[in-house]
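An example makes the point: we print one protein in full, the chain in one-letter code, the fold tokenised, without further comment:
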Amino acid sequence: MRAFTTVAGWSVRPFHLILFYPLDYTFVCPTELIAFADRYGDFKKRNAEVLAVSVDSKYVHLAWQHTPRKAGGLGRLPFPHLSDLNKTMARAYGVLLEEEGVALRGLFLVDDEGIVQHATINNLAMGRSVDETLRLLDALRTVKETGEACPANWRPGEETLKPDVEEAHRYFKKHYA
């Protein structure tokens, strides 16, 4: 994985999406990893790296990637598939269920400075949305590039909020009149 990418003549560190999931060969997990793998190009266009993490070993990850999708496998993932066998990452990110020894479905967006800008944690049975993750990534990029804020349900191309009382009042009058 490259630490820097050249974009329009600038060296830009990528954003990172860290996806914790409970275990390989389970039920919801392959649906999520396949969904993120199938949309990996959308993350790359946004200069974002995806990292999948579970407490299984690298050997189990390899076997799961060699298992066909129709049999509950993944096929080859286009992004790193990390083994957290000693549970250090899951514990550090606060997603480890200590007694069960597995991670909750943690999703972390880390900016180009290494700062976690968004975190969601789902229980074991609830999968995550790739579309919502991309929307959040777009919002994070917009906030960092413009210094403005993204209101509820914001989508790329829509109006943002300027961090100014009078400008915010104009926005509210326009959208909530």
In short: The longest strand covers residues 48-54. The first helix runs from residue 28 to 38. Helices lie at 28-38, 40-45, 58-65, 88-92, 130-146, 165-176. The radius of gyration is 18 Å.
